[in-house]
Amino acid sequence: MTTKSSSSYRLPLTLGLAHGVSDGAAGLLLGSLATSSPASQTMLLLLLYNALAFGSQPLIGYFADGLRSPRIFASGGITLLAASLISRALGFGELAVLIAGLGSAAFHVGAGALTLRSCGGRSEAAGLFAAPGVIGLAIGGALAVSGHYLYLPFLVSLLAFVFLIQAWPIPPHAATVSKPAKEPIFESHDWIMIGLLTAVALRSLLWTSFQLASAGQITALIALGVAAGIGKIIGGFAAERLGYRRWTLVSLLIAAPLLAFAGRKLALLLPGVALLQSSIPCSIAAMARLLPARPATATGLVLGLAVALGGLPTLLSIPPALTPAVALVVILLAAIGFWFTTEPRRAVSSKQ
Length: 352
Description:
- It is globular and about 45 Å long.
- The protein has 14 helices and no strands.
- The chain has a single domain (10-343), classed as Growth Hormone, Chain: A (Up-down Bundle), CATH 1.20.1250.
- The protein has 352 residues and is an all-alpha fold.
């Protein structure tokens, strides 16, 4: 095992701070709409943002990889987020959501690809990049709910990160990810189970967060964001040492029922959120190993697609009250399928 110097984490940490500011700007924007628009219009705008910011990430990541310009997508995405704040301040709420969604998607895949390059695709770097995002989203939403529309500070911070990302020396393209393992970290059925569990858990979390925001429970929202950020950091380092497959499946199997049945009980929500988010860094790293030439696409599939799937039940008009029952059925079916399709673990580790 090679020891990574602290300097190798500077770019992921910087991109993580940019992630926090960009998601904070998005949270401020969406929160301001929730406090000034009818509930039905707010829900439609949230769904539009969800589709653009998360659902379009794999496609935008594909173009970013094809053009081999993740830096342009990262800085361009932040520029679009800055433009969305200006649009919102001028009163163009729908246009602001459209611009913010596309900007957020572009930034996530571009910055994710740069992060994977910087540390050879290790999950610790992915965790450092991903962690501040959800904290920023919670703080931005909380500021809006409390009536503090700090558009100018976010705008200045976003523009500062545009120049910083453009000036930062980027590792060469050949250093995208670390050397692939001889055997795949996740089998195909593992990915199916991971997708199902993550979608179910995010479905519950998104509804709970929306309910907390509507009720003005600012402290609870920030607590959820901090728990998610801590979970990502711990998960990134733990998975690198305990194994991606073991950490991801165990954390999701525990997180899904906790979130499905938590309601607004923070004693269940906080550990559930931390465990759910702790699987994100190693999922990014594992997907990057499957797609070594497409780090932006890999980032988009993990950071974007699962969240978009979590919002699909809303489009299908499935009542939130049915979430626990649906979650339990899906978890049981996924667990049974995983049990019967996974080959028994042989003593391979002793030979390594």
